[in-house]
Design brief:
Blueprint (H helix, E strand, L loop, with lengths): L7 H4 L4 H10 L1 H21 L7 H23 L4
Amino acid sequence: MTVEHHNLVHEFPHLKEQIHQLKTTDNYFRKLFDQYHELTTEIEKMENEAVTVSTETEETAKIRRVHLKDQLHSLLTAEPA
């Protein structure tokens, strides 16, 4: 089975510069970014069956990732203060 990659730059290629900028200047964004990256790595292991988990566990992790991605997207597209 082919596993789709969900790194943030792949998800939002048009926001690549903003991702880099916020990663280096905003601690809250960096924290969420790191959580998103770690969760994506875990999910890819589940999808590759390197880690055996229930379908419910995998789906719950994917839902958490969507929520993190939504938060990150909101930060990336927010108007500067």
